[in-house]
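help with this:

***
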Amino acid sequence: MNEFWLILGMFIITFGIRFIMFAFAGKITFPIWLQQSLKFVPPAVLTAIIVPSVVMPLGEIDISFNNVYLIAAVVSVGISLVTKSLLKTIFFGMLVFLILHFFIT
C-alpha cells in the first residue's frame, strides 16, 4: 500500500509542475536579460554531459591517442565546422569512432 501512495505522490508533483508550466506558457513573458541568459543553458548542459564522457571514458582522465572517444570528438568538431551539417557530423563522427575502435581496441 505504501508503494501506491509513493507513486501517487510522485504523479501529483510531476503533473503539477508540468501543468503549471504549460498553463502559463503564453501568459508570462521573461525579461530580456533572462531570455538572453537562457539561450546558454542547452550548450552548457550538453557540454557538461559530453566532456566527461569523452575525456574520461573509463573513469580516469585519458588524453591520449588511445582514447578513441576523444579523437572521434575532435574529428566531429572539425567536420561540423567545415560542413555545418548535423547529419554529416553525426555520420562521419560515428564512422571515425567505429573505425578507430575496431583498430585500436
Observations:
- The chain has two domains: 1-30, 31-104.
- The mean pLDDT is 91.
- The two ends are 50 Å apart (CA to CA).
- The chain has five helices and no strands.
